[in-house]
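Structure request: Glycerol-3-phosphate cytidylyltransferase, [Clostridium] aminophilum.
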Amino acid sequence: MAKILTFGVYDYFHLGHLRLFEQCRKYADYVIVAVQNGEYIKAFKPEADVLYSTEERVEMISALRIVDEVVVYNTVCPAELEKIDFDILALGEDHVGKRFDEITVWCDAHGKKVVRLKRTPGIASSQIKKELKG
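Returned structure:
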């Protein structure tokens, strides 16, 4: 059974997140969603406007039938990835830069496949936050 891992904050849960999980299911029988720890977010981005606690976000994602397992992470790095049993890492098309290059190299070295998934056009948490603040 193949296990796929994707990660995010998932604070303003929306259709784009659900479609991400649906894309993940096409690659694997078991979908693991990593939810970023709110305390970690606040420690490194004190100005961040996080609506739901880590526990609330885990509860919401766990309630989805398409998701098999939810874990909490601080930041995406090899040390965090080593803690999770997965075969495939799903990155978004916007996950670019040194940090993502490092985890791609780690995945290659540890026999993990990396797939790039498309964003849902016209939907973004940052856009939702901006519209709500009006």
